[in-house]
């Protein structure tokens, strides 16, 4: 199901955050802003790749300890060079449509990880302007401080780096953010950070902003399915390809597709974000949870792959 991936190096980033350089399987590719899912015993946790797929650097994740958190502390305490972790292939939709767009990036604390990947990719491969507003508690807690300073020095005409420190000004307010973002109104906007920061950014922007929410998975996508389980048959059209699989009736469609190595899109995996939405062409499914699709979406045959289990013996879905 997952693949065993060797940790090549461990880097102390701050007192609370460590980076893990990963020897990803060569057939795994990723887009800027995507994440991998890591098995930690009986649970699984997502971590954004902070490396860029275009710079030639090795793949890297950065884990910040969460007070009382199971997965983040286990990883920071136990992983050393040579450790093998079990991972699911990169996924997620927090990635720019075009690296040539002007980008306004917001990061708070460990939310810098997917933003860093987007930033480095855009500076190397894109042609637009890039601005980053990066909020942290204080200077010692800034992850990638030196790398960001180096990027700002290397791209003085294209990259504006704006640090916000709570210890100097308190947490960023909507009014303060409005002032900061004024010069960047036409830019494509992306935010990742703690919920209060993302809420303030959304209110200040008052327009479209793509968000990546860091939360722990409540399900374990690595868990074995009982082999005697009844199966349905599912046909899936995705990325111009057609697949057909046995579909164990208690397995969610997204888990099935990922276990088959298909790069199906997803983010929250809890029925709250619709990143995994696809359309049903025939057959019926049941959604175990749905906090995002509405009547009109169902009328258009949309379902959430992360919550869909089969109700009929034959099901056909499309992502195209
Ligand atoms: C797409 C995505 C990308 C992510 N990328 C990153 C990244 O790059 N870097 C990063 O550091 N994180 C990232 N995360 C977050 C990461 O997946 C974990 O959620 C995070 O590391 C915390 O996991 P944990 O197991 O340490 O904490 P958990 O054990 O899940 O605990 C989380 C919090 O809840 C509290 N808690 C736990 N159990 C209970 C309980 N029973 N009652 C009350 N409180 C409880 C804990 O004390 C803790 O404060 C990402 C998440 C997503 C979805």
UniProtKB/TrEMBL annotation:
Q: Which residues form the 2Fe-2S ferredoxin-type domain?
A: 232-320
Q: What is this protein called?
A: Oxidoreductase
Q: Which GO terms fall under molecular function for this chain's record? A: 2 iron, 2 sulfur cluster binding; flavin adenine dinucleotide binding; metal ion binding; oxidoreductase activity
**PROSITE patterns, from UniProt?**
2FE2S_FER_1 (PS00197), 2FE2S_FER_2 (PS51085), FAD_FR (PS51384)
Keyword Metal-binding on entry: yes
User: What sequence ranges are listed for the domain FAD-binding FR-type?
Assistant: 1-97
Q: Which organism is it from?
A: Rhizocola hellebori
Q: What cofactor is needed? A: FAD
Entry keyword set = 2Fe-2S, FAD, Flavoprotein, Iron, Iron-sulfur, Metal-binding, Oxidoreductase
UniProt keyword Iron-sulfur, yes or no: yes
**PANTHER family linked to this entry:** 1,2-PHENYLACETYL-COA EPOXIDASE, SUBUNIT E, NADH OXIDOREDUCTASE HCR
């Amino acid at each position: 199901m997952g693949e065993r991936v060797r940790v090549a190096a461990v880097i102390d980033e701050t007192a609370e955050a460590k980076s893990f350089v990963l020897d990803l399987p060569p057939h795994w590719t990723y887009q800027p802003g995507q994440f991998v899912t890591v098995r930690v015993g009986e649970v699984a946790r997502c971590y954004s790749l902070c490396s860029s797929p275009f710079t030639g650097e090795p793949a890297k994740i950065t884990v910040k300890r969460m007070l009382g958190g199971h997965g983040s502390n286990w990883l920071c305490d136990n992983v050393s060079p040579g450790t093998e972790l079990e991972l699911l292939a990169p996924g997620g939709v927090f990635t720019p449509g075009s690296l040539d767009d002007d980008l306004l990036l917001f990061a708070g604390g460990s939310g810098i990880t997917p933003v860093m990947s987007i930033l480095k990719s855009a500076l190397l491969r894109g042609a637009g302007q890039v601005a980053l507003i990066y909020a942290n508690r204080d200077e010692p807690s800034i992850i990638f401080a030196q790398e960001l300073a180096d990027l700002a020095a290397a791209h003085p005409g294209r990259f504006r780096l704006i640090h916000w420190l709570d210890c100097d000004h308190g947490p960023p307010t909507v009014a303060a953010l409005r002032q900061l973002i004024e010069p960047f109104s036409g830019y494509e906007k992306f935010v990742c950070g703690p919920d209060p920061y993302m809420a303030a950014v959304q209110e200040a922007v008052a327009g479209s902003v793509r968000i990546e929410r860091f939360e722990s998975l409540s399900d374990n996508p690595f868990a074995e399915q009982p082999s005697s389980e009844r199966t349905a048959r599912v046909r899936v059209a995705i990325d111009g390809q057609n697949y057909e699989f046995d579909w164990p009736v208690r397995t969610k469609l997204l888990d099935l597709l990922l276990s088959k190595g298909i790069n199906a899109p997803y983010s929250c995996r809890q029925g709250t974000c619709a990143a995994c939405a696809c359309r049903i062409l025939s057959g019926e499914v049941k959604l175990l949870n749905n906090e995002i699709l509405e009547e009109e979406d169902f009328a258009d045959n949309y379902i959430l792959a992360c919550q869909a289990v089969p109700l009929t013996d034959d099901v056909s879905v499309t992502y195209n």
